[in-house]
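name: query_chain
kind: protein
chains: 1
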Amino acid sequence: MKKLIGDFIDYLSVERGLALNTLESYGRDLRQYSDFLDKGRFSSIEQATRATIISYLLHLEKQGKATATIARRLAALKSFYQFLVREKILERDPTANLESPKLEKRLPRVLSVKEVDQLLRQPNPVTPAGLRDRAMLELLYATGIRVSELVNLNLVDINLEMGYVRCTGKGSKERIVPLGSVAQRSVQEFLQRGRSRLVKNAEEQALFVNHHGRRLTRQGFWKIVKKYAADARIDKEITPHTLRHSFATHLLENGADLRSVQEMLGHADISTTQIYTHITKGRLKEVYAKTHPRA
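structure:
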């Protein structure tokens, strides 16, 4: 079982070029499925039937797993079994014709422009860490890049003179995103007055580093955001992608076209970007309800 999962992960990495986070997610989901088979004394993964898969999905439901989690686990199993059939390890796919549970369309939480401003004003620009934090938050809101893309940025990926950032997204796809003047200034100040006081190794290429002088992690960044959200007294639930969602929503509210926003976010499918149009329509209804005399 371990070898089969390893071979599948290698296939996803080499043949499909999936990102490390995605590969880890597939591996984790499949190992948990394998544990379920072992503990429940079910048949082996090669002998699993449609009933076995359904039992596993019902088990997840009883555990209280979210619909999105169950759908993701089933998607991992489908890909895995399709791979085993394609490699002639199995003759049939037990997940064939199994439908994924319908997902509720949940709109991402976004901050208002005022709340974003409150958040961005929290870092103390006197300290190296404060300069770094302000540069990260400004950069994230200015570009809408993912947190994983932010922490993976190297010095060569920022061009302050031309005003753009180059990042590598899902599927190792590279894209160029414009960088606003405020974010440019914040990054420039960090590079001039903050970064050199944080790095320990002159050869470190990471743009943003932690207090040990090494590349900042997603978890490290997330702790920073939660602290500043609390300092700003923002009551809304904030996730690592909140500034990304806010970036997209605010652009569309101010007249940006959907295709441009899709390009900047790095969405392969424009239908993914379209969720933000629902948010702006909701805001329009709110404004109408508050301001129109006959609302």
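note: The longest strand covers residues 164-168.
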